[in-house]
Target: FAA hydrolase family protein
Amino acid sequence: MRIARFSIDGNVAFGAVEGEGTGDSAGLVLDIIKGIPYADFELSGTKVPLSKVRLLPPVLPNKVVGYARNYRDHAAELGNEVPPVPFAFLKPTTSVIGSGDAIEYPAFSNDVSYEAELAVVIGRMCREVPRERVKDVIFGYTCANDVTARDTQKTEKQWARAKGFDTSCPLGPWVETELDPADLTIQCTVNGEQRQLGRTSEMVTSIEDLIVNITEAMTLLPGDVILTGTPAGVGPLHVGDEIAVTIEGIGTLTNRVIKRG
Model:
């Protein structure tokens, strides 16, 4: 099931996406959900066309945990080694935007990059999750763009500003709850030109082991997001660019870059 979060007439709701499509509104409708999707819920039967609503970030995470250099080719293209253990970082909730929202180019950087990623959405509070129970804590999967101020990342030992600036974490367009993430195509285009093309099977550390790794250290809450790394092909963004992240079985996340302020 595809579950979207949206606003209509000043109200925010979740809905089940019905119809065929990867992220545009043509032919898609939303069946409004009673309650919240992390618990047992019912479909209301009240349906609205996707074209009549504004898509919001599909979840409002308490935290976004990113993993760096989880694809060998991406690590190599930036001159880095694959870390011996998973390398985690955090992005704040204020970095999260939805499909169709603008990425604001930060004034402190002259080299901002796109990074197409599969994002895992957590469905229940969990800590110290054993590998065999990881699937029990996953709500679903969505597309992500781990937008990065590359020059700032190189000059500052901590990545808080480089990866945590406002609008640096587009998520969407919705969460797919029924998906095998083991071998999906990840693609990124900029202004219609393909820049990244990879598969989730190329991950160095699996989704199961990433969740085991982070829950050894901290509690995850419903709606928290895990970014699983990006394949090779990252590159610069410029004001006016349109970036589209498409993941097989999920859909397409689209954002445009604007000048901040």
